[in-house]
Amino acid sequence: MMSATVAEAMAFREKRGFHSLEVNKTMWEVPDRYTALKQVGSGAYGTVCSAIDQKTKEKVAIKKLHRPFQSLIHAKRAYRELRLLRHIQHDNVICLLDVFTPDSSIENFQTL
């Protein structure tokens, strides 16, 4: 049974335009505009799914970082990856389109 706090947080996310789904035994909470998630890879720092952006009708990749704020080193790696992706323009590297978190407040901010 879910606690009231967890249920309230999930309801808040749904109101904000997020939906939850399970992909290969991992829960994903993504903005409603992203559908048809399919896992395409997994590594030490995260898991990647392909999805369809309903707003642009384009295929996109979504990376869910595993515990990005577990330690200072993990946080620095996450920040470094975001900064690099923001500037890289290469045919073999997907460009960064968006960054989001399903967390409802800064105090709960654990997922990126």
Automatic annotation (TrEMBL):
Its cofactor is Mg(2+). InterPro entries: Kinase-like_dom_sf (IPR011009), MAPK (IPR050117), Prot_kinase_dom (IPR000719), Protein_kinase_ATP_BS (IPR017441). Residues 34-112 form the Protein kinase domain. Pfam families: Pkinase. It is an enzyme of class 2 (transferase). Its EC number is 2.7.11.24. This is mitogen-activated protein kinase. Keywords: ATP-binding, Kinase, Nucleotide-binding, Phosphoprotein, Serine/threonine-protein kinase, Stress response, Transferase. GO terms for molecular function: ATP binding; MAP kinase activity. PROSITE patterns: PROTEIN_KINASE_ATP (PS00107), PROTEIN_KINASE_DOM (PS50011). The lineage of its organism: Eukaryota, Metazoa, Chordata, Craniata, Vertebrata. The keyword Nucleotide-binding applies. ATP binds at residue 64. It comes from the Eukaryota. Belongs to the protein kinase superfamily. CMGC Ser/Thr protein kinase family. MAP kinase subfamily.
